[in-house]
Description:
The structure holds two protein chains of two kinds.
Chain A: H1 10-13, H2 35-46, H3 71-76, H4 79-82, H5 94-111, E1 115-116, H6 123-138, E2 142-146, H7 151-161, E3 167-171, H8 182-188, E4 193-200, H9 211-220, E5 224-229, E6 247-251, E7 267-271, H10 275-278, E8 286-290, E9 298-302, H11 309-312, H12 325-362, E10 367-368, E11 379-384, H13 390-399, E12 406-407, E13 418-422, H14 429-444
Helix pairs in contact in A: 5-12, 6-7, 12-14, 13-14
Chain B: H1 32-38, H2 41-44, H3 62-74, H4 96-103, H5 105-108, H6 120-137, E1 141-143, H7 149-166, E2 176-180, H8 186-193, E3 197-201, H9 211-217, E4 222-228, H10 240-249, E5 253-258, H11 270-273, E6 277-280, E7 300-302, E8 314-317, E9 323-326, H12 343-379, E10 399-402, H13 404-410, H14 414-422, E11 430-431, E12 440-443, H15 451-470, H16 472-476, H17 489-493, H18 502-513
Helix pairs in contact in B: 4-12, 6-12, 7-8, 12-15
Amino acid sequence: MLKSTGRENLKELFSNIPDQFRLKRDLDLPESHTELEVTKRIQNLASKNKGADSGRVFLGAGVGLHYIPSVVPALAGRSEFVTSYTSYQPEISQGMLQTLFEYQSLMAELLAVDVVNSSMYDLASGLAEAILMCVRVKKRTKFLVPTTMNPSHWQVISTYTEPLGIEVERVDYDRSTGLLSISDLESRLNDQIAGIYIENPSYLGFIESQVDRISELVHGIGALLVAGVDILSLGIMKPPGHYGADIVVAEGQPLGTPVSFGGPLLGVFGCTGDMKLVRQLPGRLVGMTRTSEEPYERGFVLTLSPREQHIRREKATSNICSNQALVAVTAAVYTSVMGAAGVRRLGENVAYNSHYAADRLDAIPTVKAPALKAPFWNEFVVKFENGISAQHVHDELLKRGLHGGRLLSEEFPELGEAMLLCVTELHSKEVIDELVSATEEIVMSGGDSQ
Amino acid sequence: MSGFRQAKWREPLLFEMSVAGRISHKLPQVDKEIRKIAGSIESMIPTEMIRAQPPSLPEVSELQIIRHFTRLSQMNFSVSSGTYPLGSCTMKYNPMINDWAANISGFSWLHPLQDVSTSQGALELLWELERWLAEITGMEAVTLQPAAGAQGEYTGVMVIRKYHEYVTQECEQRNEMLIPDAAHGTNPASAAMAGYKVVVLPSSADGLVDLDALRAAAGSRTAGLMLTNPNTIGVFEKDIGEIAEIVHDAGGLLYYDGANLNAIMGITRPGDMGFDVVHMNLHKSFSTPHGGGGPGAGAVGVKKNLEEFLPTPRIVRNEDGSFDLDDNLPRSIGRVHGFYGNFGVLVRAYSYIYSLGKQGMRAVAENAVLNANYVAHHVSRIRGFTLPYSKDAPRMHECVISAEELKEETGVTAMDVAKRLLDFGVHAPTVYFPLIVPEALMIEPTETESKQDLDLFISALEQISREAYETPEKVKGAPHMTAVSRLDEYRAAHPKTLTLSWRMFQKQSEDIEN
């Protein structure tokens, strides 16, 4: 091969690299390994982890532990999907394009909006992009978020908004319910506000039921409403498109993808069909069209690309290129498998399990569940009131092979000794009962003092 | 001809197959006692927040779903199907063992917020991978948080910004990012998102960084230079030492776009060339599958003096050898991801490097470069095709061929050539990029294509050239062997016919009926 190109040795191929920059030693990496050796190393590492497939982990806080029907990984894992890239040549990539169009369509139905793009990295960066989009559309530089929002998401939007001079203000909340303080919101509204973000259900679990009032206030000053929702709650909960959300974001991981230590996730990102919004949308969009020539056949292509970095460069709506397409494919398969009846039933099953758990925990003296009094769906705050620390409860649960909820003492010290518990269809009655009796035992025995 | 013919199914949307009441998956009954204690759904969810109508999702059976997505997959070309020389995307073989690794339950079912005592294996893997990537790029600290190359760029540029905020304390004044005209579109887009004004550097007659233009542009407003090396025409920037000096003398930092890292692993390192910040596309050089557009992973490496600016949390090893997460970094750019990045992708990259080892990583680069030069040499001898810029310089991981002559002499464009290639069961190269090459075909064969595969690719281009001169209509009408012929992109984007979802499609159908 080399000779046919007129060169004598491999070194010649690297002749443009100045000698001073050539690495004159081996890289300090492991030796090469056979496949069998690789499996041993990987298994050794994995064995040091305790996976949540045990059904004994009560964590949510941004990702969801849910059952994954066997058909989902079998189809989404097909090599033709897995080892392709962005469908730049639509004629030979109709499979991925149609699947992503179906993903966009299925998410649009769940969210009740017309347009969903073919994915952002996760909810956090999706929300950051949503804020940037509001600022572009409205040409205003302030944005409002609830104080109760997911603290990790808050950190991500802080990273993204700071260099652009976008001011993000936090709206206060009602200490007993968690709901957004309407009076604080009203006091912050002015013609510099590009938009406001609400979560539903919120990070702290409560359902933000004042959506119609918030929507009215936000639209009253000509700003946009951005809603972040738990996508799996939408089988039973009102979709954001029905309460006036202009832009919607959601974490799509619960749709058939395991939590995988926090990634890959899936930033579901959508908006109404208003072209003022659509033209400012970040990310890939797949559109339905037909062949250029007769006989016309239906086909799918990437569209509205002049928004994107490969064409618009520094004037693009976003820098995003690679996204989470395969996770979107997974979400499409999962949502199809669940169907309308399935997502409703799942929403109900989760609600039953979580409310049962809250009711049992609340029956323990000095334990309050939910500690915030507004209704919830899958997550709720549990508060320990007899001087015992949430950390101690967590440590003791761990000793019993149970993983409690997210500790809130650092993120929301005003809530006292609290943890954010998440219960889904994965948790059996037996394990919930075990959690309750273990908690009772820990709380009753007193244990540490803070 | 290769005899290729792609599968073609007239596959409707699942929405069009829906039959009321049909289900695919059954959920368990709720335990009676749970139901009794929890009460009714109406008692749990406020009435005004209950969904009035269930979402109109397709109601289909499991077998229908299996056939649907199996058929669609058969209409999708992939690395598993054939040669995929999409320039700058490094479409190499993705070893199956890496997917297995990511999917074992000790990794895939690990919740990111679990107590670190229950996730030591995951943290150890990340910690070790950070060190390997630092060694490969000649850097001193690595973050694995960015979810893709572009987010890696953004993270890297933000690190540069923090450096100017805290170290030079000239953040406001240094508001310009220098970027060559041949750079990937993500570079200027990432810089702009970080608040920078983009200053475009014209390429020299050799297609390299023009040193005079760089000297003229670099100065007290320069935050840094973003550079790919080898660059997007596939040639190594031999003046990199001087480039680094000019940028550093001006007080700026040097950013390495790792899109083309595959060519140099084990041969040379960005850190040794003078780069301060690098990003790596783990889905390119480290062989994690591209997934039809993602997920990728965009690790970022920096020199020691920039470590404090990396995203939080950092993975740290305690004195007793255990691993932990450290959030206490007051000068950090903050978070760019909800958790720690695309962990499943990182497991695959770990498994890949562990498998190939030090010798393997170097062999990757050597074979990738050999393959690209083989293609460049033979394709540039085909009538109508030329190899513009730095003709005598060897190509690295890819080559950019121009079909300008072909277009002038036959009317057949680079896009036509790309479409015709599909008929041979070969994916098209990247077309019309970089912008400095007219009628560009950017070809990156990667190290995993055999000589036989490359010869098939070259002979396909020979045949297309002959066709262009003899029967140009055949090329201009291509593709003929794919699931569909060329699609109407104008119609797809036109506001009157724009259809981005089934909902929009139904609304349009209603409008037509009315």
